[in-house]
Structure formats: C-alpha cells, structure tokens
Amino acid sequence: xxxxxxxxxxxxxxxxxxxxxxxxxxxxxxxxxxxxxxxxxxxxxxxxxxxxxxxxxxxxxxxxxxxxxxxxxxxxxxxxxxxxxxxxxxxxxxxxxxxxxxxxxxxxxxxxxxxxxxxxxxxxxxxxxxxxxxxxxxxxxxxxxxxxxxxxxxxxxxxxxxxxxxxxxxxxxxxxxxxxxxxxxxxxxxxxxx
Length: 194
Fold this sequence. Notes:
By secondary structure, the protein is α/β, with parallel strands linked by helices. The chain has two domains: 1-25 and 105-194, Rossmann fold, CATH 3.40.50; 32-104. It is built from nine helices and seven strands, in the order βαβααββααββαααβα. Strands 2-5-1-6-7 form a five-stranded parallel sheet, sandwiched between helices. It has a two-stranded antiparallel sheet with strand order 3-4. β3 and β4 (62-63) form a beta hairpin. α4 packs across α5 (76-100).
C-alpha cells in the first residue's frame, strides 16, 4: 500500500509522516530527497548555476537554498523551470525506493501532489490540515518571514481544495499526541482494508 501525504507548508506533513513510520510504514520524504540528494548532485548544481549563478556559494560550490527559494518563488517561470529539472529525478528516486520493498506499506510526503497531478501514484491520499494561524506560526519558527511564507503558500493549491480531494484528512491544530491518535486510527482502519 502506498499513501501520498500532502497538505500546506507548515501544516505538519513531516510530523505526520514520522508517526506513520512509528506505525510500521516506510517513509519517503520528498523534500529531504530534493535537499540532500538532488540539490547536491553535480549535474543539477551545474544546471542551476548556469541559470541562477547568484545562488551558488562560491566558497563550496553548493546551492544556497534560501537564495534559490527567494528567486523561484518570485518568478513563476523560474519556479516551473526548477520543477521540470527536479521532479523527473525525484520520481525516479521514488521508483527506486518503492522497488526495494514492493509489498510494504509506504508513506510518501508530497507537498505538490495535487498540483502536479500525481494522484495515480497512490492507493490513498492523506491531507494534513491546520489553521492558517498555526501554519504561519510554524513557518515563523523555521525562520521564514510571514510575507515570504504567504508568497510560498500562494503557489500551492488552497488547503480547502486539498482537503476536498484527499481520501483522508488529519487535523493538526492540537497536540502531537492528538495527531498520533489520528494516525493510529487511520493505520488500523487501512489495515482492515487489506
């Protein structure tokens, strides 16, 4: 079984995915793959550097993620270009990981699941929902200024539409324990469908 986990920025996808992991699911963190594998891959770094030389740190040759984010969220054409560079590589890595344990239960964190039309990858889609107040507070804790957070959020499908299109919704406005209880209930319910 493969679950796609989505929601808005700062909504708690990573926290929820870790809770699925506790419940026996294998986890794929798309953001971590992009950050740790793709944005450090020499070919990807070279292509990004050719288009956005100002985002490459000349002391170590690495992509400055904060500078890159500023650039791409300010210009839709640049954002689309970067997505077209990264997403096929990301999906190939998903396939590799899924092939290592085809009969397992998987949870894949996919921020842009609906935006990129990836519904057919998954048996079920789970959306983590939170209020905009909680969302902005979490992003502020990560050091993302409110104006930048709102700019990034505006590039995603509205949360209400994600909730409507998901098979299951987890509410993340309470405690981590409350979220864990929801994950436990959902994983037990899904185990009964197998």
